[in-house]
Amino acid sequence: MSEDTPVDWEQARALAYEAGRRAAGPTELISLPDADGRTLAEPLRALTDLPAFPTSSIDGWATRGPQPWHPVGRVLAGGIAPPLDEAGTCVEIATGAMVPPGADALLRIEESTRDAAGLVSGVPRATPEWRIPGEEAHRGEELLPAGTAIDPAVIGVAATCGYEALSVRPRPRAALLVFGDELLTAGTPGAGRVRDSLGPQVPGWLRRYGATVDAAAVTGPVQDTLEAHLAAVRTALTGADLVCTTGGTMHGPVDHLHPTLAKLGAEYLVNTAAVRPGFPMLLARIPDADGRPRFLAGLPGNPQSAIIALFTLVAPLLAGLQGRPMPELPLVEAATDVPGRGNFTHLVLARLDRSGRSATPVGHVGSAMLRGLSNAQGFLVIRPGTRATAGDLVPFLPLPLTPGERP
Ligand SMILES: Nc1nc2c(c(=O)[nH]1)N[C@H]1C(S)=C(S)[C@@H](COP(=O)(O)OP(=O)(O)OC[C@H]3O[C@@H](n4cnc5c(N)ncnc54)[C@H](O)[C@@H]3O)O[C@H]1N2
Ligand code: MOO
């Protein structure tokens, strides 16, 4: 990759994803309760038929032959039902209990009567009141493919199938270095100083994309010297698969990122993306003697640009590292006309309507601003050489929000 050659935005995403996929970590086993948020490294297959045995859906009677039925026993959930051998007999049965071999109908308790001699009568419903083995899944059937994000429902179905642990990809470990001597870490901005808005924000986004970020892995502001940058990046790389830096991506007097990468022998995968805001972003691979792949994502200093770089390069990289598919972008309707940005992709912060199908650009979206980001659900993607007219379908890059955020 020649230096500072802007890469098309879609291609930048694809390059980051492929780099992550090639560097995906070795699989590991994780117990079910700890698996939330991980990624299946292998397909989830049913270990038995589901249900594994004919299972009563009701409390009542399992009967054989014509009524009235003479009760000969009881079977509870968890028990092994002996066969019902004789016509005219029944057993009392509980919901979840195994239906005895030989039974041909189940009768609800509230739809049954007993005579003075204790014989049971009633009309079983036409639709079967028990679940047939294999009705939900057959033994060996693939329920979910490798690459599936594990959520509580996936954990639940794995438990149903008989798993105690799942084969998953490791969580990528991320670190963050904030560059900029002008940054304050407390108090109100003024007198040439601004608050660091990325140090407190970026770890949350990284975690939402599946990375771990220890408190000790967030450092800054790192002093604006080449020596301090180099030392900070070297230290961060020892414990992280991915180091994100903020600021210093350009070639100003105190922008030391490129010289730092040169000293580390880094290989650029993306060195600026043709996108506005956010274009000075970069992604590099850093060689190391132990062969473990390590990445550095250079996020620009302007805060909205930094977050766009994170969504453009870091999100696909982390998806690849975790063995997940490349996130596809849904199409939404632009609610208003949206201008393009010439040869650059234009990312436009926007809010979805209640249907989620139409997006309206929000205000306060300068690359140095965060107000628009905090009020939007994602970005309309206006591709190079195009503009959107109200009603056009355009790709939408969603923020990784959780339900309840931006209601
Ligand atoms: N001659 C040119 N100058 C600039 C260009 C250009 O094309 N030619 N592009 C501008 C664009 S666009 C961006 S984006 C920035 C990227 O520059 P850097 O990545 O080197 O960022 P810095 O110079 O360090 O900072 C830029 C800006 O952002 C503020 N900042 C930095 N870090 C933080 C933080 N953690 N929290 C809040 N604000 C932060 C910093 O104070 C500056 O105002 O370059 C432009 N210049
Ligand atoms: O592209 Mo800059 O990243 O617009 O702020």
TrEMBL record:
UniProt keyword annotations, A-Z: Magnesium, Metal-binding, Molybdenum, Molybdenum cofactor biosynthesis, Transferase
Keyword Zinc tagged: no
SUPFAM superfamilies named among the record's database cross-references: MoeA C-terminal domain-like, MoeA N-terminal region -like, Molybdenum cofactor biosynthesis proteins
Protein's UniProt keywords contain Kinase: no
Gene3D superfamilies: MoaB/Mog-like domain, MoeA, C-terminal, domain IV, Molybdopterin biosynthesis moea protein, domain 2, Molybdopterin biosynthesis moea protein, domain 3
GO molecular function, one term: molybdopterin molybdotransferase activity
Cofactor: Mg(2+)
Family in the record: Belongs to the MoeA family.
Protein name listed in UniProt: Molybdopterin molybdenumtransferase
GO biological processes: Mo-molybdopterin cofactor biosynthetic process
Function: Catalyzes the insertion of molybdate into adenylated molybdopterin with the concomitant release of AMP.
CC annotations in GO: cytosol
Record's signal peptide: none
E.C. code: 2.10.1.1
Catalytic reaction annotation: adenylyl-molybdopterin + molybdate = Mo-molybdopterin + AMP + H(+)
Domain MoaB/Mog: 175-320
Top-level division of the source organism's lineage: Bacteria
The organism's taxonomic lineage, starting at the top: Bacteria, Bacillati, Actinomycetota, Actinomycetes, Micromonosporales
Pathway: Cofactor biosynthesis; molybdopterin biosynthesis
Pfam families cross-referenced by the UniProt entry: MoCF_biosynth, MoeA_C, MoeA_N
Listed InterPro entries: MoaB/Mog-like_dom_sf (IPR036425), MoaB/Mog_dom (IPR001453), MoeA-like (IPR038987), MoeA_C_domain_IV (IPR005111), MoeA_C_domain_IV_sf (IPR036688), MoeA_linker/N (IPR005110), MoeA_linker/N_sf (IPR036135)
